[in-house]
Amino acid sequence: MKFRILSVLFIFILLLPNLTNAESTDNWAKLDELSGQALLMVKQERYEEAKQLLQQFSNDFLLNFRNGTFSMDELRVITVTHNSALEAVTSTSNNYDERLTKVTQFRLVVDAISSEHQPLWTEMEDSIMTTFSVMKQHVLEDGNSQSYQHQLNIFLKKFDIIHPSIQVDLPSSQIQKMDSHIHFLDSYRNEGLKKSTRIQQMEQMELDLKELFDKMTEDEADPSLIWVMISTGSVIILTLSYVGWRKYKGDKQKKLPKRDTEE
């Protein structure tokens, strides 16, 4: 009997971290839903309701999550994008596009933190890569034209929307590489660079952009999660098997005196 109690207790201890993680995941799912509702309100131009949802997010976030749950970088990105989104829907000086951009940034960050694979920001891949291809084509055809400048502005705006999210999902080395590309395009947009120099930079940037999206769309299971599942499952199976063997042995021993009496 004592062994069974200890076995159940041991299994509970093993599963306790997973139960805690499940509770944390459930709380974050509610916050994720709030960010999605806030974005929907902005799309419908219901800014006061969007403001209330963002304020509720802040209150619930402080209530449910303590220091140590997130890294310093994640906390910084959450805080910055949330403040920007709240300011955007509150200030009357912001137009619809500005509000939509800031709240979308925040929405994508919240999703990026909870999504292991294929976060929402990766859905902008086709749009971003298409704009980049059009921009590159303008350079190939007529160099530093007004059309190129226009497409560059569109590209920079689109990439700015996902930039906070990639800070959450990607290593700093990859972020620095992309920031370097962006800085080059923006800083030398009006410089009389050779077409070959600009194209060479853009071709490398195109490869790095594809790598950025490909890295997040790989649908692979987390090796650490698989190990936890295997370990926990093995312990449970072994424990139950041992309990069953002890029960079988005990039942067998109970029958032995009865046979001796009959003989």
TrEMBL record:
Membrane-crossing segments per the record: 225-245
The keyword Cell inner membrane is annotated on this UniProt entry: no
Signal sequence residues: 1-22
Keywords associated with the record: Membrane, Signal, Transmembrane, Transmembrane helix
Domain of life: Bacteria
InterPro entries associated with the record: Spore_YpjB
Name this polypeptide is given: Sporulation protein YpjB
Source organism (scientific name): Litchfieldia luteola
